[in-house]
């Protein structure tokens, strides 16, 4: 193909669990699940085969919880449009918004709005 090997992904997204924030939420979205880490690792390893760096790539995460996976994708696929969804019930949406703002303030490379 002649394309260069993509750089290794950065896994520097910071999330505060609902317990760390002292604000337990009424859903399963209050923490980063192991499956999110495994999926990110799979996507990194398969990014060429899946053409994750192609122009116009759109990703949606339904039920993003604390947002770690979606923010990790946005961090490592800067040309992609990454959309997260979460329900307001139980404080889940507020928890997601908190973590997105935390990373916009703290990340070396700001996350897109």
Notes on the structure:
- The chain has 113 residues and is mainly α.
- 32% of the residues lie in helices and 7% in strands.
- The chain contains three helices and two strands.
- Strands 1-2 form a two-stranded parallel sheet.
- Helix 1 packs parallel to helix 2.
- The longest helix has 15 residues.
- The N and C termini lie far apart (33 Å).
- The mean pLDDT is 89.
Indicate the low-confidence ranges by residue numbers: none
Q: Quick one: overall form? A: elongated
For the biggest β-sheet, the strand order reads: 1-2
What is the helix/strand order? HEHEH
User: What profile does the largest beta sheet have?
Assistant: 2 strands, parallel
Task: Put the structure in a nutshell.
This protein has 113 residues and is mainly alpha-helical.
Q: How would the blueprint of this fold be written?
A:
Blueprint lengths: L33 H12 L12 E4 L6 H9 L4 E4 L7 H15 L7
Question: What attributes characterize this protein structure?
Answer:
mainly alpha, elongated, 32% helix, two-stranded parallel sheet, 113 residues
